[in-house]
Amino acid sequence: MGSLTISPVTDASNHSLTSSVDDAWLQLAHVYDSLAIPKVLIDPKTHTISNQGQKIRQRLGRTSLSRFIECGTTQIGPNADSYEVFLTVTTHLAAEGAGSRLSTTVEAVARPLTFNQTYSRCSTKGVLETRIADALKARLPQ
Hints:
- By secondary structure, the chain is of the alpha+beta class.
- It has helices at residues 21-34, 127-139; strands at residues 13-17, 41-43, 48-50, 54-57, 59-60, 63-64, 69-70, 73-74, 77-78, 84-96, 99-111, 120-124.
- Strands 1, 2, 3, 4, 7, 10, 11 and 12 form an 8-stranded antiparallel beta sheet that branches.
- β11 and β12 (120-124) form a beta hairpin.
- α1 crosses α2.
């Protein structure tokens, strides 16, 4: 009889950029600021920025969390908008041909505020990753 192993892996969302890694890197911190994502890790050697996880409720900036992540739904609406969410956003830039590649990973877990439960894994809707890529592309020369 066979076995099944399930591991929690979140694939990065990848976007190609026509600008160099250095040009994109100069703008990436501004993109995080514009989306209200705190910058805890800024590593210029690996071209990586991350919030390294943050507890958050209801919104990221002006946007409801349920727009970015799926944590299930109850009678009162999407859990992402009413639960305590631990959200991790990490973005990495790498050279790719004459341009660069932007890779963003969004991971989230959530739990109800009123019950002492463990966190449950949420899934990304891909919206935040696309917003990061679009905002960065808008700041770069065409």
